[in-house]
Amino acid sequence: MTPDEVLATPLRFLKGVGPRRAADLQHAGLATLEDLLYRFPIRYEDRSHLQPIAALKPGQTASIAGRILSCGLRSTRRPGFKIFEAAVDDGSATLRVIWLNQPFLRDVFVRGQHVVLFGSVEMRGHGGLQLTNPQYEIVDEEDGETIHTGRIVPVYEKTGAVTPKMQRRLVHEALQKLPAEVPDHVPDEVRARLRLPSKKAALLAAHFPPDDASIEALNRFATPAQQRLIFEEAFLFQVGVFARRESAAAERKPVVVRVDDRIRESARAVLPFKLTNGQKQALKAIVDDMQRPHPMNRLLQGDVGAGKTIVALLAALVAMENGLQVAFMAPTEILAEQHFFNIARLLQPSRFRVTLLTGSTPSAARRTLLAEIESGACHLVVGTHALVQGSVQFKRLGLIVIDEQHRFGVLQRATLRTKGLAPDALVMTATPIPRTLALTLYGDLDVSVIRELPAGRLAIKTTAKPESRREDVYQFVRAQLDAGRQVYVIYPLVEESEKVDLKAATEMADHLAQEVFPEFRVGLLHGRMKADAKDRVMKAFAGGELHVLVSTTVVEVGVDVANASVMIVEHAERFGLSQLHQLRGRVGRDRHQSYCFLLYQSPLSDEARERLKAMTDTTDGFEIAERDLRLRGPGDFFGTRQAGVPTFRTIDLVRDREILDLAQQEAGRWFAAEAPPPAAIETLLANWAQRFKLVEVG
Ligand code: ADP
Ligand code: MG
Asked: Which atom of ligand 1 is least distant from the CA of 308?
């Protein structure tokens, strides 16, 4: 067998794995030796220093080993609440151990068993010590003591019917089967320079650490063995990203954009203000890309209010001056409409025709529009994802602008791309993406970041207040309204309780209009309203005819009313951090001092408290994004798995950012030196997307 074949060995060739267990393993995502060896322990326990029960102290976390003297289930005064209790003796003393509400333990433990327990030692009510809800493992006599106790042991996550102990035994056996040389995806040169341990040594040490390993480093996944395996996965991923980039770069645009003084002048003519430095730099990078022979793939990141739209519009102008059409996509109709009005206004003096195409464009108008797009009479089309539907044909689509990217599936980006002739693509996002995620999610994009806000903006003052302080907030709001400002009141709207939420928002609008601010005009906006009704309300608010806008989160992204200075978020505890930040970004868009009030219902969960604290601590979107990622974990960061977040076996996007950086550098360097890649990498790239469970993009 070649070493590769060894790693591909199905687990049923391991001792004690019959068809049934093999099925359980398969179910837990473990089919081959490689799968098994790449499933890291979730933590490590130092069982080389088992504490004698007699020496335990309250408050300490301890591993003990002993024999069960007695055990059983007992009822409590609370109906249905049961305690499983055991007495464990290790020769030095006897310890009481309890598990709350886990009656099934009755079928797990029997008198006389040898067990290893791991947990925190607590004081009992009337003296004496006990372990509560400890991790447990039953150690049979025939299990060689060496792998389950008397050393640092790996603890694996229980998946389905596959127990941590079973995995430990299987991993141990799998490691014995490894050939002397395990195939390594990290090239020799890179490995030598970074002084990485060999793959085999790393696998051994990551699962069964040597006695002198630091338990603390192990549990941080920071030992050389662990880091090396993480690096390998990151390196592979990044090599694939570079390969994808390379193949995109091989595409050629039929029309390469040129920029001359006439075009510069036409851009200056539409510009209503001076660009910030960040905007200038971003624009330069974009226009440079557009002048290259292969399609642009650029992500423009900038916090809410940073002024991304004008940058995109200027890029659009350059494309149109070169005889190309532009598609400008927004995630919602309201946003598309807003972009349309802004863009149409700015392009008024130019000779270019701008149109709006959304799902609610009436079919007759739609047909006319489609014909104009196809003939090239229409130069810039603003729209929602209706734009990507099959019926839209462009004559000469040269640039695609996608606002607020993460709202779209990665796939849609691909569909629209095929409509043009290798058009340039500019993706804009107002959700600052933590760097590590940007590296992985958008690794095949070039990135521009606008860090500063236009001059003269004041930081928004944010306060979190309990419901009970609502009156204070109203008083404050009245002063702002008197001063001529406008106010948003946002209600959460979750699908499961949509009816109730809508009712709450509607009632609040009435209450504010009739009782709280009778002298001002209050409007209501929610997702269930017809598009034209929404539009009327939004326009009335934008035009200053409405003073207070009560809304469900449809105003979340991009809506721009510069005179609004107060954002009140009701039930702020129900919103995600990025969402709160987006909402806050609706104010502070002008020279007025703006305010954000987060009204919450007590008691707060720990996580909700953290979110509100992050909001009051900082207005920096990148900082918020980092905290959000830490709170939610990468899987949930974009709300859905399909957002194109790769699935890693060993990498944790939060924990391992330094390794990811290093791997990116190394992969880039290696790829540049070795392109085209050697055959070994070629095969690997063939299933790269499946390996990382990525949605394939055109
Ligand atoms: P976002 O990046 O959130 O999409 P917008 O493009 O909507 O931000 O811009 C926010 C507001 O700032 C808009 O009203 C826009 O006209 C204004 N703006 C953008 N750039 C500048 C600038 N350089 N100077 C002054 N105002 C600007
Ligand atoms: Mg925007």
From this structure: 2
